[in-house]
Design a protein that fits this description.
alpha/beta, Rossmann fold, four-stranded antiparallel sheet, 13 helices, 9 strands, 10% strand
């Protein structure tokens, strides 16, 4: 029995390390290549999975001491905001998929540590920020802990990875993702000057452009995904977390104290996804909290969670939480500059 267990878990560990669908163990090589392309002024096509936190930390480090008109912080719902949407204004987009409030704080502190200056901050004020449950199952690094602790005034030494990375060797869910990744086509990272490419693309301003397979997903599949996929950030969301509200308040107060103009960006949800949120008490409470917080602090809101408010229907979305780039561009330009 012991021999069998060693063989089984040894095989899982070997596949997880070798295939590494989230680039946990081989992120450095992938990120180095992306950063090299960005340095040369190229967009980088072919992004699949990587440690986004580490990449955006390296991306921020690349821009030490620089000045920008806008900083974008938040989840993948703000990750597609690019300089093209800002009428020629400069932008550094430090959005990451599945962003938590602690990571918003960490990236703001990273900008302070790296002397990255900006006049305006676009914050993706997602309802999920106020869900106190640890429900995101992404494989993330702990590179950001140091910066969060610094912002909070907690004495801590900079750390890299912790024991969770070791245990991930034996993760069955990671093993399943590895098998799926191995069966799919592997795209080579390519330096390009174009934006709308076949593969997912990171742009020189830190923003992201979806690949062709996502852009051309059949509507029936999009609608089905809006029913069943990517709702994990709202699982068990019965009430908003007072701890997360306090962290959010402290971040906004810190930004205001730096004399930076804040905007809340609230991209709409797919109609089916939005209906599910309306039946989720914590999400509804978060909607109301964000509105009242913006009013009480004189913070403009760009967009609306309700797709009907923006005149959108189900054809305007890639999936439940992600509005199509061209629709987001119209919202941002209309409500930020008009």
């Amino acid at each position: 029995m012991v021999t069998l267990l060693v063989i089984v878990f040894g095989g899982i560990a070997f596949v997880n390390y070798t295939v590494d669908p989230g680039n946990i163990y081989h992120s450095q090589e992938c990120i180095d290549k992306i950063i090299e392309g960005i340095k040369k002024g190229y967009n980088v096509e072919g992004i699949t999975n990587l440690d986004e936190r580490l990449y955006k930390l390296r991306f921020a480090e690349l821009h030490k001491g620089e000045n920008f008109d806008y900083l974008a912080l938040g989840s993948s719902r703000i990750l597609t905001i690019s300089e093209d949407m800002l009428n020629g204004s400069s932008l550094i987009n430090l959005g990451i998929s599945g962003c938590h409030i602690e990571e918003l704080i960490a990236f703001y502190q990273i900008c302070k540590d790296f002397n990255i200056h900006f006049s305006n901050v676009l914050v993706a004020a997602d309802p999920s920020l106020f869900n106190g449950h640890e429900i995101d199952d992404r494989w993330t690094s702990t590179y950001l802990d140091y910066y969060f602790n610094e912002f909070m005034g907690i004495c801590a030494t900079e750390q890299k990875r912790d024991w969770r990375t070791v245990w991930n060797f034996f993760s069955v869910s990671y093993f399943k993702a590895a098998l799926k990744s191995y069966m799919e086509d592997h795209t080579i990272l390519t330096y390009v000057k174009t934006v709308k490419n076949n593969g997912n693309t990171f742009l020189t301003d830190g923003s992201f452009y979806w690949g062709k397979s996502v852009r051309e997903t059949p509507q029936s599949v999009v609608d089905e995904e809006a029913k069943t996929e990517l709702f994990n950030l709202y699982n068990n969301f019965d009430s908003i977390s007072s701890k997360r509200v306090a962290l959010f308040t402290r971040l906004i107060e810190g930004i205001k104290g730096d004399n930076v103009t804040i905007y809340f960006v609230c991209p709409p949800f797919h109609p089916i996804f939005y209906k599910k949120l309306l039946n989720t008490k914590g999400a509804v409470d978060a909607f109301n909290l964000i509105d009242s917080f913006a009013i009480n602090n004189n913070i403009p809101i760009i967009g609306s969670f309700n797709p009907a408010d923006e005149g959108l229907n189900k054809s305007n979305f890639y999936d439940g939480p992600h509005v199509r780039i061209e629709c987001l561009e119209k919202i941002v330009k209309r409500e930020l500059f008009n």
